Fold:
Amino acid sequence: MDYKIAVLPGDGIGPEVTNESVKVLNAIGDRFGHTFSYEHGAVGGNAIDDYGNALPDSTLRTAKAADAVLFGAVGGPKWDDPRAKTRPEDGLLAIRQGLDLFANLRPVQVVPQLIDASTLKPSVLEGVDFVVVRELTGGLYYGKPKKRWSNSRGRRGVDTMYYSEEFISRVLRVGFELARMRRKKLTSVDKANVLESSRLWREIAMEMGQEYPDVELEHVLVDTAAMQLVRQPSRFDVMVAENTFGDILTDEAAVLSGSMGMLPSASLAGVPEAGGRAFGLYEPIHGTAPDIAGQGIANPIASILSTAMLLRYSLGLDEAAALVEDAVSRALADGYRSGDIASPGDSIVGTTQMGDIIVSLLG
Ligand code: IPM
Ligand code: MN
Structure:
């Protein structure tokens, strides 16, 4: 098969890690007889510099025409002025909305070899294997009004946590379907003791739960969920949460895996099915890491694991996806470490070396 992949590397270490993912895709193509063609697009800070727009129209068109989007990361100190009219992050928010990527899947697994890389006790990390489904195109990030103004009594700012039934239902659907494919437990995260939008969320979750008698549904308040994530993370299977709640909880969850450099994500425009195809954008959870950008030392694993998700969810190539995940596990089992996941005494490999090793383990 021929597949068209839009590659949007972005800023900082984005291009470095995305390069390694392209290498992995090419190797998968050779191995399975597929061809991948790549169309590059500018996004983020470099797009602001070159086009005056964090998401140029041409980039959105390129993304829409592709079978899937491989995304690096956006942002950096150069564009961080809080008074700036546009920010690199606007490009990410615009592409999520422009492609209707409403369900952001962030799987968290603890790799046994990396248990010491986490700041948490090994006993807490045993058996951790869950997915957070973060709602990605609504909630506090996008609700209106959203603005800053001043009046005679001083400066004001407002953001709005707004949800329609449609937006809540479609992301909860993803949560239930994923739970059904896994250990059949769904944790719906909300703040229903305080927020109206959360009370609607919980009501819809309870209604939808009737359609999934085989899935155990629980409702957990977001503050309690944050506590449980470090107290007993192995209790979770699938969690589904509002945009901001999911953003915060997944940075916290990254600590379990030892490094932000390990966690992939998929942002989907449809409900994932086994062997099915949902359009999606795939990006590491980590940012642009300006402190190490350009040095060739960033960990490409989060991007490569995102590529495995691309193969699985957008192209329906489950076997290829599993092969990539397996190659990553074997590279780690063989003792290869990038700086972020190294323990004292480990020998450290750079970005392209890690990519080469993973490619060589694809068999
Ligand atoms: C993420 C990031 C983004 C978000 C930023 C860069 C806009 O933190 O993907 O989690 O808040 O969604
Ligand atoms: Mn975040």
In short: The pocket of 3-isopropylmalic acid (ligand 1) is lined by residues 75, 89, 92, 247 (CB under 6 Å). The mean pLDDT is 96. The longest strand covers residues 139-151. DSSP finds twelve helices and twelve strands in the chain.
